[in-house]
Amino acid sequence: MLSLLVLSTAAGASDDRDEAMFVKWFQHHHTVRFEHFLVQRKIDAVVPLYQLLRTASDWRECHAQPFALPPASHWPAVESTLKLLDALRQQGVLTRFEVVSAYRDKRLNACAGGAAHSAHAQAFAVDLEFPEGSVGPQRLCDFWKQHGGEWNLGLSRYPSGRVHLDTTGYRTWGEDYSARTSYCLQPAPDQVRF
Known about the structure:
Helix content: 25-40%
Radius of gyration: 16 Å
Number of helices: 7
Strand content: 5-15%
Structural class: alpha+beta
Strand order of the largest sheet: 1-2-4-3-5
Largest sheet: 5 strands, mixed
Mean pLDDT: 86
Distance between the termini: 34 Å
């Protein structure tokens, strides 16, 4: 099942938690049941496994592991989030991206400054980075406005330019964690650059 490592999203590696680091981590962690789950659901090719298991980017400062396997109780949320990413790719909304943060346990989430009820810790969420010019914020916002309710899509953009996606509730928020500062609800979101 380690063959999942070779899949690529065509994004440049912006995170030092690469495949080589994952292979070292992988040797001491059992992911076979999770990989089997992904294959059974036909979602194993959406995101490379090493990206899908990345924890918070602050993992070093928080004395945590660089990768983490979400508990089995979270796997249905993993499935819905990966199906969303696949739909966004198939519709041309997202073309190239890299998952830089996914599941976090509660301790790591708190240390990394995540919200108390963060989807990263409560269910499953992904933070994405994009190569320059690979996605237009208006297309992602348009999808959220038109189809976000169907997908239970939570969408936010951090000041760093990273985008948060989850499928735990139809909502959007901005820098102050409120909808009023969401880039999707601004008068001219096409002015916002990733």
